[in-house]
Design a protein that fits this description.
Layout: E1 6-9, E2 21-25, E3 33-37, E4 40-48, E5 51-58, E6 66-72, E7 80-96, E8 119-122, E9 127-131, E10 136-145, E11 148-156, E12 162-170, E13 176-186, E14 193-197, E15 203-207, E16 215-217, E17 224-228, E18 231-236, E19 255-259, E20 268-272, E21 286-287, E22 294-303, H1 307-316, E23 329-337, H2 340-351, H3 364-371, E24 376-379, H4 394-408, E25 414-416, E26 429-432, E27 438-440, E28 450-453, E29 457-461, H5 465-475, E30 478-481, H6 500-503, E31 507-512, E32 517-518, H7 526-538, E33 543-546, E34 550-551, E35 565-569, H8 581-588, E36 592-595, E37 599-606, E38 609-610, E39 614-615, E40 622-631, E41 635-643, E42 648-654, E43 662-671, E44 677-684, E45 689-691, E46 695-697
Length: 698
């Protein structure tokens, strides 16, 4: 197995010509002050009352790009310098993609194939400034890295402590998969210490000596901080977009510090990394289709305080990696193969007990979910080894699963039994019942559809799609396609869209996850969002909920970056003893929205109708789409998306005038003549977002 790495270091060779700065796209109304003084470009913007960020860029190619980064009391005042003579650095690992299933692939392993290594340069051949709304970007052209070409960008947002760094690159090479590391380096760092929170939430701090060898560390919130005498600078990536999909969510040391990172970065630095080997199962990396502009993002956060202050500011952007509570909603997270039942039985045998084994009184996965603000967790058990093929042997396993879900649920947390049964329908799918249900996936040929079994009650035997539908109708359950159009659901639900079970009201639709990774997209999970539009056009009415689809969950895992959540409209949290029919009904009626956590959508109506409801159009076809949105990162755009049964139309709302950590009431006039459905999406600068379920048009 061959390994090599492509290094992109933003240091340029000597170039005698001074770069021209094109200010034709700059707008002072953006709230960002930009001034050229010889070979220096000064960028300043308000951070908070009495504080302004100051970024001095050096345009001489032989000098470090960031001459100074600091905080001033006034927009035109001298800054307290946090970092001096610093270079952005990017490390690209470039390999190849297996395109047997096209670009929507998970079962692939670029790290097991040849990689290439390049030392790239930034020539600073041209510098331009462009503004949009309340933000401005400095674009430094001339970035080259092996098969990739592009530019380097620094964007600032008035009222926000972030500097948004991006290497924006493209390649014409086909079948390209890649990863990137990013950070800040200095030949003589003037920061004294480096700090981060470890996976036990303990602050770690080490001296920043010029001889410290580069090391990867496991940190909370994907962040690491350079501390200097007068403040600190944290670096961290987009929280969800940065992590390519894996089956396991362990913290694979996503941050680094020291000298000689990747064996090629000569200077000392700090940064983030995408580990090439992941969980050493399927490691699909990131797609780079030819001609697409891949945006390799990193944030620098400025603080006048120590690392603890900077990390507190970092946590604000993700609510501390916790899903915020919203009145009238409960958080619902689906598709986890924690296999608690099998672990409990195994530990009972090992500890020779019929009770709860030591160490599983409150299993680690329950603690992890609660710490992330999850109210309801839907499991997908019995997905390993021989358990999917079991017959009557399933019954004691199901009983243990139901008993444990009952035991581990309380007045603030509901653990819902569920499976990824993957029988009879085609592809992979998920089951959700409103109460404990016993059923056999591979019954004997002569087994009756329903029989009474002592100790468990009714036991169902499903032998074909008709039996599956009959069971879900009788028990009022829901089923949907897991990871549609990818993994073992490649080609589904498309292949069964005309079947009776798909067209029934027991088939909810499909599940959404950011898979595959593609950094050219301004939103996450295009694969399923496109399917969402297709299903709405196909009819009958279907919905899309968020799924996570990982094995094993521990408190020290990097779970949040892989997560999304469903905010479900529920008056109260169901109790296990009463069943969770209200949850099933709310999902079936489309009374929920999906979010990565940073962007929230607590209200969405079309002509006064909420998601899942039907709207009768006025004669002129004109209605108002209204939405209440909240966010942390500066927002990018919202879209009203609608379809007529064949085509899909989009109406974009630019949100670049909005500041970080705010909210807005939107009212958008829309022409709906001929439309059959309308839905809504909203996304921020880090590709975090939220989307509604459709309003149906009659």
């Amino acid at each position: 197995m061959l390994h090599s790495t492509l290094l992109l270091l933003l240091v340029a060779p000597l170039c005698p010509a001074q770069p021209a700065v094109d200010l034709s796209g700059y707008q002072p109304e953006s709230g960002v002050a930009i001034r050229q003084d010889g070979t220096r470009l000064r960028v300043s913007w308000p951070l908070a009352e009495g504080e302004h960020g100051v970024l001095h860029l050096q345009l001489k190619p032989e000098e470090p790009l960031i001459e100074e980064l600091g905080i001033a009391g006034k927009a035109d005042g001298p800054p307290v310098v946090l970092l001096r003579k610093t270079n952005p650095v990017y490390v690209l690992t470039v390999g190849s993609r297996d395109l047997k299933q096209g670009w929507d692939v998970f079962f692939d392993n670029p790290p097991r194939r040849m990689h290439e290594r390049f030392l790239a340069t930034l020539s600073r051949s041209k510098v331009r400034v462009q503004s949009q709304g309340r933000r401005s970007t400095v674009v430094v052209e001339g970035l080259s890295a092996g098969p990739f070409q592009g530019d380097f960008r620094l964007t600032v947002y008035p009222g926000c402590r972030l500097v948004h760094a991006e290497a924006v690159v493209r390649t014409d090479q086909d079948a390209c998969a890649f990863l990137y590391d990013a950070g800040l380096t200095s030949a003589a760092p003037d920061w004294q210490t480096v700090a981060w929170l470890d996976t036990n939430d303990q602050l770690q701090r080490v001296k920043a000596t010029a001889t410290t060898e580069a090391a990867a560390v496991a940190s909370r919130h994907r962040a690491i901080v350079a501390e200097c005498r007068d403040g600190s600078v944290a670096v961290f990536p987009p929280p969800h977009q940065f992590l390519y999909p894996l089956d396991f969510a362990e913290n694979f040391k996503f941050t680094w510090h020291g000298k000689g990172h990747q064996g090629k970065v000569a200077d000392w630095g700090i940064g983030v990394r995408q580990p090439p080997d992941g969980d050493q199962r399927y490691v699909p990396w990131v797609n780079a289709p030819p001609g697409t502009q891949q945006r390799l993002g990193l944030f620098y956060l400025l603080s006048r305080g120590p690392a603890t202050d900077a990390l507190a500011e970092v946590r604000r952007f993700t609510h501390g990696d916790r899903f915020k509570k919203l009145d009238g909603f409960h958080t619902f997270s689906s598709h986890y193969h924690v296999e608690h039942t099998l672990e409990l039985i195994r530990e009972q045998k090992a500890q020779k007990t019929d009770g709860i084994p030591k160490g599983l009184e409150t299993p680690p996965f329950v603690r992890a979910f609660k710490s992330h603000g999850i109210d309801i967790v839907h499991l997908a058990e019995f997905h390993v080894r021989h358990t999917p093929e079991m017959n009557e042997q399933r019954l004691p396993l199901l009983k243990t699963l139901h008993d444990e879900c009952r035991r581990l649920s309380d007045e603030r947390f509901l653990l819902v039994p569920g499976e990824e049964p993957n029988v009879h329908l085609g592809g992979h799918w998920i089951s959700l019942f409103p109460r404990p249900v016993y059923w056999l996936l591979h019954p004997k040929p002569d087994a009756p559809f329903e029989q009474k079994v002592e100790g468990v009650g009714s036991v169902y035997a499903v032998k074909n799609p008709a039996d599956v539908l009959r069971l879900f109708e009788k028990e009022q359950g829901l089923m949907w396609t897991a990871h549609p159009r990818i993994k073992s659901s490649y080609g589904f639900p498309d292949k069964y869209r005309e079947t009776e079970f798909y067209r029934s009201d027991r088939f909810l639709g499909a599940a959404w996850k950011n898979m595959p990774a593609d950094l050219s997209q301004p939103r996450l999970g295009r694969r399923v969002l496109d399917l969402f539009n297709d299903m709405a056009n196909w009819e009958p009415r279907k919905y899309v909920l968020g799924e996570v689809d990982v094995f094993k969950v521990q408190p020290d895992y990097e779970l949040y970056g892989h997560m999304n959540v469903n905010y479900v409209k529920l008056a109260r949290l169901p109790r296990f003893e009463d069943g969770w029919q209200p949850l099933v009904d709310a999902l079936r009626n489309g009374q929920f929205f999906v979010s990565t956590g940073e962007m929230l959508l607590p209200r969405f109506t079309v002509g006064g109708k909420e998601s899942g409801q039907a709207l009768r159009l006025p004669a002129d076809g004109k209605v108002d789409v209204e939405a209440h949105i909240e966010w942390t990162f500066p927002p990018a755009f919202a879209e009203v998306i609608l379809g007529d049964g064949k085509e899909v139309r989009r109406q974009r709302i630019d949100l670049s005038v909005e500041a970080a950590f705010s909210r807005k009431e939107l009212k958008v006039p829309v022409e709906l003549k001929g439309a059959k459905w309308v839905r809504f999406e909203v996304w921020d600068i880090a590709a975090n977002g939220a989307f509604s379920q459709p309003v149906w048009v009659e």
